[in-house]
Model the fold of this input.
Amino acid sequence: MEQAADFRLEDTDDGKSAVLTGDWTAVRMGEAPDRLAQSLKGAPDAKLDLTEIGRFDTSGAWGVLRAAEQTEDSERFIGSPRVKRLLALVGRAIQAEPTPHVPRRSVYEVFDRLGRAAVDIGVNAFDTVVFNGHLMVAVKRAVMNPGRIRWAAVFSIAERAGLDALPIVAITTFFIGAVVGLLGAHLLAQFGAQVFAVELIGVAVLREFNVLITALLLAGRSASSFAAEIGAMKMNQEIDAMRVLGVDPFDALVFPRFLALLLIIPLLTFVATLAGLAGGFAVAWTVLGLNPTAFFQRLLDNVAITNFWVGMSKAPVMAVVIAGIGCRQGLEVGGDVESLGRRVTTAVVHAIFSAILIDAVFALIYMKLNV
Done:
């Protein structure tokens, strides 16, 4: 049975002696070392009898040495060889000099960080290829057997990721269209060509800003939620439980999110287009004095419908990339909250960067095709 650490002072033929009793361990030691140190101040030559000690660990040895103001084993201690060996071990550790810190050279640190970054890029590229391959297998299984698709999960995710985002997408693109209209009217006024602001609004909204703003909002909204949801399941070992039950996480978690975003982003892009044109029209009406008939007639006459289809053609690609990034980062979450936060942040950053990069690539391709 465990006993709290204690001691008693005795008078012997060799002088005073402190007899230690109980368990001198980290758990049971308590304030015994401090009381022992106070008692030994009045008897600096008193011996310490450790023969009646129960359990004895390094914390207890350090407490005894500190109370006796000793840093190594000496004749002052009475006890078994095991106890004396532990005292000697702790005493040497107290006397040992700290390990010197050798600062790395700056050039070494630069190459070390470059090397680690190169390795991380290679590992991430390999993991991305594996993820894409697994996702393609899941898509093939769904196409071959549509009954495997969890439509309830698809529509639920589409509502949360898409329909709930309609207000913020519409408001954001409305103000983007208004800003484009204001800038166009102000700049073109220098040349007396304010009326051409209508063409500027139409091309900018139909071709670029509708899908780009939608993708950026979904990158911050949906990619983060996908990573957080799947990451939380990974932390709670729910994904491991799925695999044990024979359920592929790509079929149950990744593919429904992939399909939901693929279905909903064209609707969001269309709403963004209408809202952006509405914002530009509000500016044209208030600043340029164009009535609705003149605005929309000029828009239909001078802005080709091709611009609308160019913008809409980017939407599926944006959806695939944003959903893939969010789900992949969620599957990479470790077992701690720090890993979850880091992966969610990475998902948002990567999704935003990818959306802008994809838009730039499409712009170059259509420029080469004269579309």
Summary: The chain has a mean pLDDT of 87. The two ends are 86 Å apart (CA to CA).
